[in-house]
Amino acid sequence: MTPLLSLQGLCVTFGGLKAVSDLNYDLEAGILGGLIGPNGAGKTTVFNVITGVYRPTSGAIQLDGVPIQGRPTNAIAARGVARTFQNPRLFSSLSCLDNVRIACHLHGGVALADSILASARSAREERDILERSERLLESFGLEGYRDTEASALPYGEQRRLEIARTLATEPKLLLLDEPAAGMNPHETESLMRLIADIRARYKLTVLLIEHDMKVVMGICEKIAVLDYGVKIAEGTPEAIRRDPKVIEAYLGEEV
Amino acid sequence: MTALRRVLGLLGAVAIVAGIDWAAKHLGLNPYIYGVLVLCAINVILALSLNLVNGITGQFSIGHAGFMAVGAYASAAYTVYAVPLLFGAGYAVNPWLTAAAFLLAILVGGLSSAVAGFLVGLPSMRLRGDYLAIVTLGFGEIIRVAILNIDAVGGARGFAGVPQRTNLAWVLGGAWLTFAVIRNLMKSFHGRALLAIREDEIAAEALGVPTTRYKVTAFVIGAFFAGVAGALFSHLLYLHTNSFTFMKSIEVVIMVVLGGMGSLTGSILGAILLTALPEVLRFASSLRLILYSLLLIVLMIARPQGILGRRELSWPKRRAASPTRPTLAS
Fold first, then answer.
1. ipTM over 0.95
2. Which of B112, B99, B35 is nearest to B72 (CA)?
3. pLDDT tens, B130-169?
4. Are strands A17-27 and A5-14 parallel, antiparallel or unpaired?
5. Nearest CB partner across the interface for B203, out of A89, A104, A148
6. How far is Cα A134 from Cα A147, in angstroms, rounded to an integer?
7. What is the pTM of this model?
């Protein structure tokens, strides 16, 4: 069975800096994967390469066996890869509803001329998008913020909205970049439930970057550890916890 | 149901435009005021179309006068050279033929400007912020200077002999069309994609919005209506490239900023205000331009987000007994 996401010998260099070197990582469909490592290890770079923000210097990225490296970001999104950002990138002066409605873009099929003439087909599609978005807001408990400007939301809710927005694209693979950053333990707890819940409900494959070990060890099933762009370990949470190389990378060598 | 409403709306708009035009002609409206009204409507078209690029899509372009010039000269050249061949030399005695020829001329102006917009937009929409502004400024000037050197359209002498066909009905129709097109666009997912580009291009792209294509599309639609405005302008008075300098572009930018970037009704307000203001200030004779500048400065200090900000003016909606929505449940 081909894995949903497969990184093969992935290298990314910026000038003389090797941000990611020779990374191999497979993520089977339905698995919740984790990508961890000290600051500057190249984790977000991996996300940026998968989503086409950067072009890999060498190596291949396959989604369902189809190479996607070097394709434009919007085309990769259309193939079913959605992501959140380390700092939420909401459309901050638009309402929560519009944030989600914009994410339904891939489902908009009518031509520009239809929209300009406000044809019946366009109206039908807009109704469909509206309904879909309202349902999504509701299932995230955000319906009370429907018409609120996104920037006015509390931080935790902004993160929830960002995840809700990615789901509107109906992805196969969801990339979460430090979803628990800046959250208090209570918020983190509900985030973990949320991730487990949406994964089951939308049959998602998830890859997340996280520093909060409670989240990583608690929900991830297949963890890869990066240090200076090199994968130093891969395996289940138990195996990672005991791996001497990982302990060294995080805590330093024993003297 | 919707089709019926649309037909009624269209008929209503035509009736209102025709009514205003009739009233202006037959109730003895001062020709000077009539002229200012026509200019107001042309500027409304310009401001609305620039707002699509600058306010809604968030791409700062300052070359709008260049596209207006393309539309003006293309339609004028079409009317002067092509129409007598197409419609026969004596077409002008038939009012229906004349109107059809003018409608085509407006289309020719809009389309040729849209083509110019596409050619300029394709390379320059990869740029951002100040760089884009400089490039559009440069293109605007190149277009103007190029036209200045084409002898067939009069060159530096100006283009004489363009029949004066523009009246209040035509410009009001044009302004209404521009408004309707952009408003409909903004109610669709295409329009929301443009807003997403203004808000956060990287996030928009990650959600599947092909940002470059949308930026070019917005630029082309903006250029089309600038061309329509140009076509209306060229059949109004004497046509000369001096009307399309850098200052004209800036004037339109000020209308958009003053009305509120991203607000369609704001652009309409801004355009009318900035067209009427210099005329109203004529009583101050030599102090006129100083007062004009002062008023602009005061307005921008008082409301830096523009008169309407990002809001729209609308008729207060009657809420049909809808279930009350829970608001801000904490």
1. no
2. B112
3. 899 999 999 999 999 999 999 999 888 999 889 999 989 9
4. antiparallel
5. A89
6. 11
7. 0.90
The pLDDT tens digits of the residues spanning A174-222 come to 999 999 988 888 889 989 999 999 999 999 999 999 988 888 999 999 9
Higher pLDDT, B25 or B305: B305
Q: Which of B255, B99, B212 is nearest to B166 (CA)?
A: B99
Please tell me if residue B132 touches chain A, with a CB cutoff of 8 Å. Answer: no
Q: How confident is the model at residue B312 (pLDDT cuts 50, 70, 90)?
A: confident
Residue B174 · residue B228 · CB < 8 Å: yes
Domain spans, chain B = 9-246
Alpha-carbon gap: A248 to the closest alpha carbon of chain B (Å): 35
Q: Does the CA dihedral A99-A101-A103-A105 come out positive or negative?
A: negative
B200–A91 C-beta distance less than 8 A: yes
CB A176, CB A208: distance < 8 Å: yes
The predicted-structure confidence for A172-187, as pLDDT tens digits, reads as follows 999 999 999 888 888 8
> Where are chain A's structural domains?
5-80+171-251, 92-155
Question: How far is A201 from chain B, CA to nearest CA, in Å?
Answer: 20
Chain A residues with beta carbon closer than 8 angstroms to that of B204: 91, 102
A92 contacts A149 by C-beta, under 8 angstroms: yes
Q: Which two tokens stand for residue B176?
A: 């209404």
CB atoms within 10 A of CB A109: 10
Within 13 Å of residue B215, how many CA atoms lie on the same side as its CB?
24
Closest to B166 (Cα-Cα) out of B226, B109, B243, B236: B236
A79 contacts in chain B (CB < 8 Å): none
- The CATH number given to A5-80+171-251 is 3.40.50.300
pLDDT tens-digit readout, A83-93:
999 999 999 99
β-pairing, A222-227 vs A230-235, is antiparallel
* Angstrom distance (rounded) from CA A178 to CA A163: 12
Asked if the Cβ–Cβ distance from A91 to B206 is below 8 Å, we say no
B190 to chain A: which residues are within 8 Å by CB? 108, 112, 115
Q: Is the alpha carbon torsion for B105, B106, B109, B112 positive or negative?
A: negative
Q: How far is CA B62 from CA B47, B66, B134, B175, B330, in A?
A: 12, 9, 8, 21, 45
Q: Which residue of A has its CA nearest to B180?
A: A116
